[in-house]
Amino acid sequence: MRAWDGMDAFVEVVRLGSFSAAARHLGLSTAFVSRAVSALEQRLGTQLLHRTTRKLRLTDAGRLYYEHARHLLEGFDAAEQAIVDYQEGLRGSLRISLATTYGERYVAPLVNEFLAMHPQLGVDMDFSNRNVDLIEEGYDLTIRTGLLADSNLVARRLGERRLFVVASPAYLAARSAPRTPDDLVDHQLLLGSASHWIFLEDGQPRQRPVRGRYRASSGQALLDASLHGLGIAQLPDFYVEAPLAEGRLVSLLDAWRDENGAVWLVYPRSRHLSPKVRQLADFLCERLQTPPWQLPGE
Q: How far is the C-alpha of 298 from the C-alpha of 286, rounded, in Å?
């Protein structure tokens, strides 16, 4: 008996929630899948699943085994796919999550260029500012901005990203400009989807909670509100560099601005990096080293 006999049956039963669903997915009979899992439990000397007529539930041992087995099977699949990619060129599909505006403006055109070079490759791009779960939601990679906290992910720095606190000259004409982040409590703040702003304090980026009567999950809407004198906003550089240069916005609290912000390309640490993901990652990292909005003609 091989060490991995029954492993794929067990993983599919847990993933799909029943023996019958796993059997259909594997192209086997339900009885065969049930016997395979029972034989696996007997060989391991422990129960992996609690079985009832209505549902299945993992034991503690089953939960531990599932996490390891799932990653092993992903590795097997990735190894075979790597050979296919090597022999036949890049093919299949990439599932990518992109921060909305940055992704639309700067990443999507490069992904389109990459696809033009690899006509057998497809892509599914999801534009959203929410923090997706790459493993559970099945993404190959994502583009994230700002601070990263998940140590289970591998992050490659794509490029720079700085956050500016800005207001219009008209807004500041009626109020004193804030001198420190503490002064913001006396101002109208224009908020995005986050409940905090980031400032450099004691040499480290810190998150400060913020409140305001205006909230929008669109950077473009925040920019427009700032230009109309509705309040103070914190926005990425690619939104505000042109209005700042034109004098339509004023940069505030520059001494507290974190100059080391970044855009990250992120993928799961446990997942074998297939050639198609690795080549796209290399391509994006090379092309986005210099912020696109700072290139000549931008």
A: 18
- In sequence order, what are the residues at sequence separation of 6 or more whose Cβ sits closer than 8 angstroms to the Cβ of residue 121? 90, 91, 92, 93, 94, 114, 115, 276
Cα–Cα distance, 212 to 258 (Å, whole number): 22
C-alpha torsion sign, points 27, 29, 35, 41: positive
Q: Which residue did the predictor score with more confidence, 203 or 189?
A: 189
204 is a domain residue: yes
3-state secondary structure of 157: strand
DSSP state of 39: H
- Residues 290 and 159 sit within 8 Å (Cβ to Cβ): yes
**Domain end among 67, 86, 105:** 86
> What SS3 state is found at 235?
strand
Q: What residue has token string 């067990």?
A: 10
Q: Check whether residue 95 and residue 238 sit in a common domain.
A: no
One-letter amino acid for residue 33 of the chain: V
d(C-alpha 60, C-alpha 274), whole Å: 32
- Write the pLDDT tens digit of every residue in 254-264: 999 987 778 88
Per-residue pLDDT reduced to its tens digit, 10-28: 888 888 888 888 888 888 8
CA-CA distance, 143 to 105, in Å (whole number)?
13
76 — pLDDT class (breaks 50, 70, 90): confident
Cβ proximity of 89 and 118 under 8 Å: yes
Sign of CA dihedral 70, 72, 74, 80: negative
Q: Pick the range with the lowest mean pLDDT from 6-15, 144-153, 203-212, 271-280.
A: 144-153
- How many domains does the chain divide into? 3
pLDDT of residue 298: 47
